[in-house]
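Sample pair:
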Amino acid sequence: MPGFIDGHAHLMQLGAQAVGANLLPSPDGKADNIDALIGELKVFASSPDVAQTGWIFGMGYDDSILGRHPTKDDLDRVSTTVPVSIIHISGHFSVMNSVGLAKAGITAESKDPVGGKIGRMPGSRPCSPSVRPPRKGKTTASSARSSSPKALAKPPSTKAG
């Protein structure tokens, strides 16, 4: 029956979006600019979910509405002690604050994951978007850690299964 088959569903994103900060733009959210996005993350930061996961996280930011991707420096405005991770509306970009990047083991010396790219500022300092997960089902330790705040709490591995 038409409408009952969805060949491209992101079920894990729906679950994460249900428990993370809503970073969607209007009319589905309030993150229409960088300051509003920061505000939504700060509200989420005071929720019990942060105590359970150890992360401030949100889903659904849209650079086409914001005018640019948020940066590590933007997310450092949310917290400099708790890791922050946000995921793009497409699910293909993730940005972390300084604490999140450190916890994920992403530094200026980090190599881009296979099929992905670590956004960098001049001088090779990681910034935004932090990681674009590989395509076509290829998974690396960096890409897997970038998309899951809970997974980010695990120490980096050298090879993903």
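The mean pLDDT is 77.
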